[in-house]
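seq:
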Amino acid sequence: MVAGRYLRARRRDTFISVIAMLTMIGIAIGVATLIVVMSVMNGFRDELLTKILGLNGHFTALPVDQTFTDYEDVVVRLEEVDGVISAVAFVEGQALASGPYNSAGAAVRGMTLDDIQKLPLLYNSTVQGGWDDWDDVEGVAIGERMAQQLGLVVGDAITIVSPEGSRTPFGSTPQIRSYPVNVIFNVGMVEFDSLFVFMPIDQAQDYFRLYTDELREGYDDLPLDATDEEIDEAYERRYQATAVEVFLADPDSTSQIRTRLEQAAGRPLIFTDWQRRNETFFSALQVERVVMFTILSMIVLVAAFNIISSLVMLVKDKGADIAVLRTMGATRGSIMRIFCMTGTAIGTVGTLVGFALGVILALNAESIRSWVSEILGFALFPPEVFLLSSLPSRVDPVEVTVVLAMALGLSFLATLYPAWRAAQYDPVEALRYE
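struct:
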């Protein structure tokens, strides 16, 4: 009851109550800021991870020395490993993509329709066109940002230029071919939507000349006067893949499953997991999260110091009241509890207000970003810089609990010194000049 009366403003206590209110607001702002920033960083990491692993597997298997002509058998064996969701073979090469208005570098990747369907992020992100008869038609799929950059729509022709073309006595000539655009997709990540060009795997194998001509059995039995057609038929053309992507049920189980994949492959392959491929990037994100949490925690710490100052002023103002309570029989512990409850109430209310405000802002981060961008007239968090086309946010209950516990703990600790000072008041000295 006494602690509650000390929290309520009276005419001569207005200044102290205003300081207490500002302290509560400071704690609320600090808690809300921590929740929003940590939620956005969690969402940013999860969204990047989803996009990166949506097109690139948890493992990338590259052939060693030998030509990778048995990739179909390898895919079947890898998919039989426990913990593997799917395996995808693909052909990939670098090229220059040209349209009516512009040109851009591109990563050309050849895949079958069955393998594309194993990538829901790609298969379900169609903006124009469709994947029907993908393996049977000659065409490509490009990202929406590449289409805008090159000035292309479905049905237009895109020119793919590769420096590795036909070999002549004078050197290699560029490989230049045009393909109709059958699909335009948008996976929501700027890098993928502006870089990748997909085409059927047999079309990509032919374009990048990923095949070998091996002699059939019985070649030695050909007559000396064999025709050119008979000689050509004596060769068997075998197509190759560049690599195989392996997708796991648990992305964090790469170290446990690596050995089983190497054994199941049945041939020498180099397995590189997603953590190693993106180690620098995700390590930087983790360091940034820790640094941001530490820096923003200072807001709550400063607000906690404000609790100390407001309680010290309150103790000075209530010196006579403390003396009267002591003369009526109140113990030092009772006085200390009064001021601990007063300061803790300020911290608790501020923490709860900050919690509610932070969760609301975190859950509506993208809507708020769009609204502020419209008002200001320029894009906040432009996708060209932040890689993603929207501002993701994911509220982590564990992190929110840590923030709330930290704010409440600091608020309680901030009350101990002023409350202890109040408990040390000598009633005689306090009432001497009253």
